[in-house]
Design a protein that fits this description.
Number of domains: 2
Helix content: 40-55%
Oligomer: single chain
CATH class of the largest domain: Alpha Beta
Structural class: alpha/beta
CATH superfamily of the largest domain: HAD superfamily/HAD-like
Strand order of the largest sheet: 3-2-1-4-5-6
Order of helices and strands: EHHHHHEHEHEHEEH
Shape: globular
Strand content: 5-15%
Number of strands: 6
Distance between the termini: 10 Å
Radius of gyration: 17 Å
CATH topology of the largest domain: Rossmann fold
CATH architecture of the largest domain: 3-Layer(aba) Sandwich
Number of helices: 9
Length: about 220
């Protein structure tokens, strides 16, 4: 019986993907690496250190360690989100929707925990979640299901009783691998990616979710 909902964060609850892109391009520029927006999209959904090591193996810069670059990106994006991060359309609606139904609620993000906590405080939504998990503490990040499984365990929920909300293909793959019913809300420019067919449901906005759609998912 579906009784649990687990949300991704970046690009789903908070409009942070553009800020991640800016922070990455700014910090990578300090080591002489010029990343176009197209290149930054290649690593959406990965953990920051995986993104940094991916580009380090490609560009092989010197002068700053991958750890230093990773920390500078996280510091930068945290500051940007606190300064100008906006809730995604329907954020309050979707949290209230599941709270009213007494669902157990969790968060499973690729972002480091300090960034997650900063976002939750910034958006004043920390109290909605009974479990908050970061993939930084798992052996593998998304698309591996580890962070989703850890969050479900913390909520004392069977993965088969969970709905996962995601925006990226990487995150959707992780949630499906955890055997969760998966709803995707892709960014507008990604909506026609055929890979989203793997999800149980695709929406244009969190506002599009309602009782009828929940009933549809319950039948799966």
């Amino acid at each position: 019986m579906i009784n649990t909902v687990i949300f991704d964060m970046d690009g789903l609850l908070v409009d942070s993907e553009p800020l991640w892109g800016i922070a990455m391009r700014e910090v990578f520029a300090t080591v002489g690496v010029m990343l176009s927006p197209e290149l930054t999209h290649k690593t959406t959904g990965l953990r920051t250190r995986e993104v940094v090591s991916y580009w380090h193996s490609y560009f092989k810069w010197e002068g700053k360690s991958t750890e230093q670059v990773t920390n500078e990106i996280i510091d930068s994006v945290t500051a940007k989100i606190i300064a100008e991060g906006k809730a995604m359309e329907g954020l309050q609606y979707i949290l209230e929707f599941f709270k009213a139904k007494d669902f157990k609620m969790g968060l499973a993000s690729s972002s480091p925990l300090r960034l997650i906590e900063a976002v939750l405080a910034h958006l004043h939504i920390r109290e909605y979640f009974q479990a908050v998990y970061s993939a930084e503490f798992e052996d593998y990040g998304k698309p591996h299901p580890a962070v989703y499984l850890a969050c479900a365990r913390a909520l004392n929920s069977d993965p088969l009783d969970c709905i996962a909300f995601e925006d990226s293909v990487t995150g959707m793959t992780a949630a499906k691998a955890a055997r969760m019913t998966t709803v995707v809300v892709p960014e507008p420019h990604n909506r026609h990616d055929p890979r989203y067919a793997l999800a149980n449901m695709q929406l244009d906005s969190l506002l599009d979710f309602n009782d009828q759609r929940l009933a549809l998912l319950m039948q799966h």
